[in-house]
Amino acid sequence: MSSSWWSAARTDWISVIVITILFGIVELATTPRHRFQTCIFNGTNCAPTDVGWDVTQGNPWAKHETVPVSLLLAIAYVGPAVVAVVVQLVYRRLEPGWAWKHDAHHFALALLAATSVTLLCTSVAKRYVGFYRPSYYSLVSEVGLSDKREHEGRQSYPSGHASLSFSSMLTVSLYCFGKTQAIAVGPGRLIAVLGCLSFVALAGFVACSRLVDYRHHPADINAGAGMGSAFALVFYHMYFPPVWQPYSHAPRGSVAASRRLLGPGDMTLPVSDVHDYSEE
Questions:
Q1: Which of 140, 166, 186, 262 is the most exposed place for a label (fewest CB within 10 A)?
Q2: Tens digits of per-residue pLDDT, 12-64?
Q3: What backbone torsions phi and psi does residue 172 show, to the nearest 5 degrees?
Q4: Structure pTM?
Q5: CB neighbours of 101 closer than 8 A, spacing ≥ 6?
């Protein structure tokens, strides 16, 4: 049994673990920057008559979020796991000898790499910038400046919900594009394209909900979505070919499944990028 695809990724797994640990350290051991505002430093009871009042931060603090953290984590991790299971079940029926372990491993690593780097960068940026949420005054009036919950009010930029949902859902969307070959085949696959894009639409809903809940400014959403999308594009293509290629459904390290499309004499990948499924 060949496990070259696994052994080659050992350092990647170690990197993901280290990045996740660093994210935990940043979250637990650091606090966001204090940005000076006259209203805040003159007292805890901010009102429109106070000097320095910023109308963009005087919105109500919603106690119940449209997408709470628990639901966000389910969308970002449980949802992709379900998609991966369905894909492997379908492809094992369609492709005899389909190396589901190889494919599932690469998808899991692409997803975890994208989301872990996204979470770390988002957390560091939030604490470095320390930008006030649109509902910061309401939070401060409720809990006071000395309460630890006040720190949450200074973590507006960028949006963590937007960055995590886009890094996860765009990875899933690209994965589905590759498996359906909707872009590679072209005409006649519009329904498949829309199905693949539905995951990005879900990420868009999560991001927009943060505006509805007065948790973020529009710029926070855009920055988070851009950050998450960028990492999803980078890490997906580390482990899978571009979605417009005819072998986009096969993970990097194997083109066995693509022989059906290209033919035995039409291999376009370098020898180093070819893995024979029969060894598994």
A1: 186
A2: 888 889 989 998 898 788 877 665 554 554 444 555 444 444 545 556 677 88
A3: -65, -40
A4: 0.80
A5: 280
